[in-house]
Amino acid sequence: MFHRWTGSMTKRDIWVTPAFAGESVSAGYSFREGGYSEGAYRGLNLGFHVGDDTQKVTENRAYVAECGFGPVSEWVVAKQVHGNGVAVVGQAERSSGALADVLPVPDCDALVTNEPDTTLVVLTADCVPVLFYDPIHHAIGAAHSGWKGTTLHIVQQVFFHMNFLYHTEAKDLQVSIGPSIRRCCYEVDDKVADPVRREFGEQYLVPRFQTKGKYFLSLQACIQSDLRKLGVPAENIDDVGVCTSCHTDVLFSHRAEHGRTGRECGLIRLNQ
């Protein structure tokens, strides 16, 4: 579902909200429209680590917070390392990585919690943001799933943590796959293709015509495969279907913009 919020900013603001978002849980994916950043980071850049002006990123994050995702002091942001580590967070971790002078949760690519008023944030610019909601046990998760995290089955690790800690059952889990680079634009070589074959099979790789050793890959299809293997019903998996590389006018893409760009985010927050 597309939402456009209007506020004090003169540019239009575009968001996508998962189908499960509502009174109990706030969730969404930012786009680059709006915001205060300039140049290569034009728009609503939310990444401190990409070379943008720190004050502008701080202002961008404050604006996002005003759009229904709680104060920045209640955000939890990880130092993402393209792995499958999952951190269990709550009140003690609030503000981690949220401000430029506060260290992020170290070395992990997914966060889970069952504590209200804790906003989980993942930053992306082609990798897949995945949001999780258990409406029965009121628990949430967020994952940053690049090709390494995907082949390491990070979404399954999120479920295993939620199942163990919060008694989440796969049949109840609601999952949203956010804006990310898609098969139309995601060309990979055998360095990526080999672990994909090993973990998921050949069917997720489309050979590039007359180009040996090059393939187009759908990370989103691999992620959905992992979720279905867990027993998550197909109707509980929502893929927003937007390619970051195709839409650099409204999204950041590390690949399409040759590594010099900002970061959008996926956020999810339990409400009281």
Automatic annotation (TrEMBL):
GO MF terms held by the record: copper ion binding; hydrolase activity; S-methyl-5-thioadenosine phosphorylase activity
UniProt keywords, alphabetically: Hydrolase, Metal-binding, Transferase, Zinc
Domain of life: Bacteria
Keyword Transferase tagged: yes
Cofactor requirement: Zn(2+)
Catalytic function, reaction form: adenosine + phosphate = alpha-D-ribose 1-phosphate + adenine; adenosine + H2O + H(+) = inosine + NH4(+); S-methyl-5'-thioadenosine + phosphate = 5-(methylsulfanyl)-alpha-D-ribose 1-phosphate + adenine; inosine + phosphate = alpha-D-ribose 1-phosphate + hypoxanthine
Ranges in coiled-coil conformation: none
Chain's role: Purine nucleoside enzyme that catalyzes the phosphorolysis of adenosine and inosine nucleosides, yielding D-ribose 1-phosphate and the respective free bases, adenine and hypoxanthine. Also catalyzes the phosphorolysis of S-methyl-5'-thioadenosine into adenine and S-methyl-5-thio-alpha-D-ribose 1-phosphate. Also has adenosine deaminase activity.
Family stated for the protein in its record: Belongs to the purine nucleoside phosphorylase YfiH/LACC1 family.
Protein name: Purine nucleoside phosphorylase
Record organism: Alicyclobacillus mengziensis
